[in-house]
User: Fold Alpha/beta hydrolase from Terrabacter carboxydivorans.
Amino acid sequence: MTHCRPAMLAGVRCPVLLLNGRFDQFRVGVRAFRRACPQARVEIVPRASHFANLDQPEAFADALLRFAGVVADSASRA
Assistant:
């Protein structure tokens, strides 16, 4: 956590997805990351821990695909 600080997102100008498992300890700091990067989208993977991609791989993949779809749709409209 020392190396992954919210301020690191302050200058990011591309789409950002903050994707955590419901029981992920990093969810505690998600508000700080969202303040640093207000355009970030936040999604929670139900019934998943920090290793959401292993705990709930289908739900994790669905969240990534939804985000990619939103990004692709907005890019095609630009």
The longest helix spans residues 57-77.
